[in-house]
Design brief:
Layout: H1 3-47, H2 52-77, H3 83-99, H4 101-116, E1 124-127, E2 130-137, E3 141-145, E4 151-155, H5 156-160, E5 164-166, E6 172-181, H6 188-199, E7 211-217, E8 222-231, H7 235-252, H8 269-275
Antiparallel strand pairs: 1-2, 1-5, 2-3, 3-4, 6-8, 7-8
Amino acid sequence: MTTVERVLEQVLAHEWAWRILIGIALLVVGLWLSRLLARITDRLLQRLEVDPILRSFLRNAGKVLAYIVVTIVALDFAGVPTSSLIAVLGAAGLAIGLGLKDSLSNIASGVVLIMLRPFHVGDRVQIAGLEGLVDSVRIFQTRLKTADNREILLPNSQITAAPIVNYTALGQRRVDVSVGISYDIDIAVPRQRLLAIAASSTAIHAAPAPQVIVAEFSESSVVLQLQAWTAAAAYSDVRPWLLERILEDFRQNGIRIPGPQREIHFVQAASLSAIRPTGP
């Protein structure tokens, strides 16, 4: 080996050593900057009052993406071929995406729920036929609690694909209580009693004013319906209270609530023979 070749080899060795050292330095500094950027982003999102769940998700996702970019840049500067690495990462990402498509769908739906906020924690909702109080909204699933203390876990992808009924969002709800009265009773009397019962409760709003309408003519009674407004949070207490008070008040004032009735007419045999057609 000639002197020139030895010098070139030493120069190349030193160059590779420097590239590796600089690559390691880039990796260390880049990872530190990535963590710093994640903290700054988190503080910025906190000042913007972004939901904590979404803030955590964006911070972690940004940090992982920054780690990947810094690692690829450091390896490329150190002289490691990164084209094959990028291809492998792309193929791995595709395989993981196909394998976790349901989970990724839940994550995407969770982000949509957190950003659009069709409901908040504490709201009473009905989703996909299930009703309960919203306990928490997470990236993968939403947790509901029923009135009898059962826990319902709903995948977020099912929530965004189903109709959502929010009973709390508008602040107040109308309580509809139907009661039957006999056909021979003057409607004005039970109407007055129902309105008086509604007025006696501080939980029932004066505006919109309660009203009583004729809702139906059933087989055995005229069905009156009391429509009164209350706070959404008080609905589950107001309705059973109204039912109990109506029953007590009607009994005290002699207003009869008829049960199911059916009229049966008996026809004697002689009458049947009288109406039978005679033969030729």
